[in-house]
């Protein structure tokens, strides 16, 4: 509560508890202003007096806190996240914002200067020299790990700019030729010639060399409705009969699969998937790949594969994989006198009718990490429907993932670096793997990065100077997910990304991650 010296009235805080850890609301300041006082204003809880409302307000923000717990020390404006106050301070009060780089190894509280840290150790932890000695030892080890990681990053993660430009130009021209030819063929009019960059190239997360590119290709279809709930009266026979797979994989695009009609709509639409209802009058060639106006993703994917196969005849520098890679059709291109390039082409349907907010995003913790402006941008970006399921379209927030990954770091921060280090390590692990890690993709690492970012909100934690801690924590987060065989989709938490993955591959990858953590912790310095 706040005491008004002139009339001895008390303006009680929100809960009326009289303690300084309760919330301060704007109405409290209005009550203060209504008192015409000449004497200093006093906080009854701490018995401190103040000469101005501004001083009292800052005291209340410091002691009581608000929903926006990051307050500017100059103008008292409050913000929900550190990024907000940092951007505000840099724009309005240059030089006023200081990051806390000096951390106490005993209680993990951070300070803006080494002097403040030493004083804290003397005040709170007794023998300063012993603690500082331990801090110095830990500092030496941290520097050694950072030096190793920086060297590894420069030698294994950085992509040569000229190689990237040359490889992209070759792929873009070849794939553009293929799509133009596909569009001219019967049934090809549903595929556009637009090539949208996707994956690591779109977000600047490519590592080592430019040997793989991802593209999204929008479909030319008129969508009437997208259903996320209910059942459908059809299923592929091989799934319905659940026979052991002794023949070709269902992913094999050269194999015809029978779509079986079942009565009364018995097949449930899974969480994170949808049924797309289209207007078949737009093109007569939609009939063979539709059931009751439902566009069947596997049949569309098979047609796309067939048309590419027909088109690329005579192109000896391109091989077409017979199996789909998730929602993508994969090609291997071979530029003359250069490294091979893997290309994933994914057909998509843009749909604004589904948002990340439909799945309970953002969470309360998310709002303390990401700025309101970035959250709004992600919510308004909609989704893409991709042919990842057999009967159903996958609700993909790959556009949100790209936007978030592009904006996840401020200058001098290392989330992207941690992600690229993880991808580089994975390439090494994959080269010596017994299983080949065919069920593992960088999609998993991306969501590990998002969750790790949300769990570690300490000021200055993601600075480059803390790379060693950040990367080891990211590895630990990945190891825990692999061990539990559970990693929630960052935007659809009810979806477990690791479900139905090869258990042998998860166990093998967990062992590799554990060994990497051990190697970093035992590094010589």
Strand percent estimate: 15-25%
Name the shape in a single word: globular
Q: Give the CA-CA distance, first to last residue.
A: 54 Å
Regions with pLDDT < 50 over 5+ consecutive residues?
1-37
Query: What is the SS-derived class?
Result: alpha+beta
> What is the share of helical residues?
40-55%
List the helices and strands and how they pair.
Elements: E1 2-4, E2 9-11, H1 26-33, E3 41-43, E4 48-50, H2 53-63, E5 70-71, E6 78-79, H3 82-92, E7 102-103, E8 110-111, H4 114-124, H5 128-157, H6 161-184, E9 196-198, H7 199-203, E10 212-218, E11 223-227, E12 231-232, E13 234-236, H8 237-241, E14 259-261, E15 267-268, E16 273-278, E17 290-291, E18 294-295, H9 297-311, E19 318-320, E20 328-333, E21 341-351, H10 364-369, H11 372-380, E22 383-386, E23 393-396, H12 398-407, H13 415-431, H14 442-455, H15 467-484, H16 503-521
Parallel strand pairs: 10-21
Antiparallel strand pairs: 1-2, 1-3, 3-4, 5-6, 7-8, 9-10, 11-16, 12-15, 13-14, 16-23, 17-18, 19-20, 20-21, 21-22, 22-23
Helix pairs in contact: 5-13, 6-9, 11-12, 13-14, 13-15, 14-15, 15-16
């Amino acid at each position: 509560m706040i005491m008004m010296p002139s009339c001895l009235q008390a303006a009680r805080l929100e809960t009326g508890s009289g303690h300084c850890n309760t919330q301060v609301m704007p109405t409290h300041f209005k009550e203060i202003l209504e008192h015409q006082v000449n004497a200093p204003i006093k906080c009854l809880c701490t018995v401190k007096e103040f000469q101005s409302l501004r001083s009292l307000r800052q005291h209340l923000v410091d002691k009581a806190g608000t929903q926006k717990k990051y307050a500017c020390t100059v103008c008292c404006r409050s913000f929900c996240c550190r990024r907000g106050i940092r951007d505000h301070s840099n724009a309005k009060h240059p030089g006023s914002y200081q990051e806390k780089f000096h951390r106490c190894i005993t209680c993990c509280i951070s300070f803006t200067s080494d002097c403040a840290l030493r004083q804290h150790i003397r005040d709170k932890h007794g023998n300063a020299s012993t603690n500082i000695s331990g801090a110095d030892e830990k500092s030496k080890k941290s520097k050694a790990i950072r030096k190793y990681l920086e060297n590894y990053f420069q030698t294994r993660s950085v992509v040569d700019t000229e190689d990237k430009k040359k490889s992209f130009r070759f792929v873009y021209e070849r794939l553009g030729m293929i799509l133009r030819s596909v569009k001219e063929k019967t049934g090809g009019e549903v595929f556009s010639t637009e090539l949208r960059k996707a994956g690591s190239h779109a977000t600047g997360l490519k590592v080592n060399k430019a040997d793989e590119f991802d593209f999204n290709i929008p479909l030319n279809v008129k969508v009437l409705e997208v259903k996320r709930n209910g059942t459908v009266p059809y299923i592929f026979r091989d799934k319905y009969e659940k026979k052991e797979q002794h023949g070709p994989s269902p992913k094999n695009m050269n194999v015809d699969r029978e779509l079986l009609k079942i009565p009364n709509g018995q097949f449930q639409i899974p969480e994170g998937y949808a049924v797309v209802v289209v207007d078949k009058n737009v093109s007569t060639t939609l009939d063979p790949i539709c059931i009751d106006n439902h566009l069947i993703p596997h049949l569309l994917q098979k047609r796309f594969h067939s048309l590419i196969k027909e088109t690329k005849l005579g192109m000896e520098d391109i091989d077409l994989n017979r199996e789909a890679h998730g929602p993508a059709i994969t090609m291997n291109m071979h530029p003359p006198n250069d490294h091979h390039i893997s290309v994933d082409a994914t057909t998509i349907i843009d749909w604004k009718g589904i948002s990340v907010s439909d799945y309970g995003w953002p969470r309360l913790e998310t709002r303390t990490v990401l700025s309101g402006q970035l959250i709004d941008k992600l919510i308004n970006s909609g989704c893409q429907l991709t042919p990842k399921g057999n009967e159903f379209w996958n609700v993909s927030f790959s556009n949100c993932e790209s936007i978030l990954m592009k904006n996840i770091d401020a200058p001098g921060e290392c989330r992207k670096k941690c992600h690229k280090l993880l991808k580089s390590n994975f390439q090494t692990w994959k080269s010596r793997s017994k299983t080949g890690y065919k069920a593992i993709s960088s999609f998993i690492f991306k969501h590990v990065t998002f969750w790790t970012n949300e769990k570690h909100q300490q000021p200055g934690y993601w600075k480059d100077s803390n790379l060693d801690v950040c990367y080891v924590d990211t590895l630990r987060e990945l190891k825990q997910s692999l061990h539990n065989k559970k990693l929630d989709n960052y935007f659809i938490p009810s979806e477990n990304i690791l479900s139905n993955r090869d258990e042998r591959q998860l166990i093998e990858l967990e062992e590799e991650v554990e060994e990497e953590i051990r190697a970093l912790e035992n590094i010589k310095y």
